[in-house]
Amino acid sequence: PDRAAIAYFGAGPSALPTDVLEAAAASLVNHGDSGLSLVEQSHRSALSSRILQDARDSFLKLIHASADTHTVLFMAGGGTLQFSAVVYNLFTAWAVKHPELAREGQRGSCEYLVTGGWAAKRLVGAENVNVALDAREVSYASGEARKFGDIPAAGHWQGNLKPARDSAFVYFCDNETVDGVEWPKGSPVDLLGDDPDRIIVADMSSNILSRTFDASKFGVVFAGAQKNIGSTGVTIVLLRNDILALLSSGGALPPQLTPPIPVTPVMMHYPTIANASSLYNTLPIFDVYIASLTLARLLGRDGTGATALELQEAESDEKARKLYAVLDDHPALFHVVPARGVRSRMNICFRLIAPGDETLFVKGAEAKGLLGLKGHRSVGGVRISNYNAVTPESVDRLVEYMREYAKGI
Ligand code: PLP
């Protein structure tokens, strides 16, 4: 079928704007009339540096941050590499900052706010360095099946969470792609307070650039590009410069530590990647190019007094509102999995109640060119991914199908 007839709601890799793909396709054959494909060009060429710079500048502009305060890294390895990278780097930063504690053999600690499967998976990262770091977990799973789907009110979770005074970092996943749980805007950062010593880390893989956020409050933000930014292959890491400075001053580490500080593997070592302007090794520049096209396109939305990201946020909210409205209009047929206050605007997860049938629902949608709706294999159900490239028109088509389906039951 023609691409225009398809509306794609896959969770990632996800839809990309057609004009971005067309520009990328042209560059795949002959980039900028150079006679060479972009994938044939050296990652160290001036052309590649320009692409990296453009992507970095657009990203910083979109989030209203500056190179004076933040460093943007483009890395391979996906969000998954960052699960480990943040632990290695931030534990080192902790040891540099607290040499007396490290020398005494005290273990550093870090806290994870676990609201779904992706925050839980980070343990894979934390366990690697567990010899030296006490990774504590505040889990929001509830019920006998220990399912995710809610974030209790502030007072409750604050009571659970007591970050140690010298905690290395507090980590959360801003949007849980599989469970459909998103932290309400501004939290938990606002609730953690304005302690300049507290380093907050957020995995924004599946909701970055869908709403504004205050970059100054975060120590590290990371996001694989393949949902809201571009294609699979690069991850954007936003790092506050004071943390980078701390990491770069590794000479201050005390010589004898028990337990020893784990040495950060070079491909995860933020100062190494930063010093090389993200070109320590061969970076997939073509993927950075796709990201730069998407970022420039998003920036181009600027106008009418609102910033580009505010416009995108309003659109994302409105698309999500329409989708939840149709679900809520038919409570006997559709059951939204997460609690109302934490429903994700990006991944709308629901079950069909008999006589509704999830397989038939998804098949019927496919027949109309509405693709990518099957829920994640670990939880089942239906999932509508409402990323930036999903147009309001695509959402309207899906809403119409859902209303028709409900009528037919
Ligand atoms: N974090 C979140 C929220 C995700 O949705 C995903 C993947 O879908 C990941 C991390 C892992 O990302 P990657 O597959 O790029 O390693």
TrEMBL record:
Pathway membership, UniProt: Amino-acid biosynthesis; L-serine biosynthesis; L-serine from 3-phospho-D-glycerate: step 2/3
EC number(s) recorded for this UniProt protein: 2.6.1.52
Enzyme class: transferase
Signal peptide stretch: none
Domain Aminotransferase class V stretches: 8-93, 167-398
Catalytic activity field: 4-(phosphooxy)-L-threonine + 2-oxoglutarate = (R)-3-hydroxy-2-oxo-4-phosphooxybutanoate + L-glutamate; O-phospho-L-serine + 2-oxoglutarate = 3-phosphooxypyruvate + L-glutamate
Superkingdom in the source lineage: Eukaryota
Alphabetic keyword roster: Amino-acid biosynthesis, Aminotransferase, Pyridoxal phosphate, Serine biosynthesis, Transferase
Biological processes annotated in GO: L-serine biosynthetic process; purine nucleobase biosynthetic process
UniProt keyword Transferase present: yes
Cofactor(s) this protein cannot do without: pyridoxal 5'-phosphate
One Pfam family matching this protein: Aminotran_5
GO cellular component, one term: cytoplasm
GO molecular function: O-phospho-L-serine:2-oxoglutarate aminotransferase activity; pyridoxal phosphate binding
Family from the record: Belongs to the class-V pyridoxal-phosphate-dependent aminotransferase family. SerC subfamily.
Record-linked PANTHER family: PHOSPHOSERINE AMINOTRANSFERASE
Descriptive protein name: phosphoserine transaminase
Organism expressing this protein natively: Drechslerella stenobrocha 248
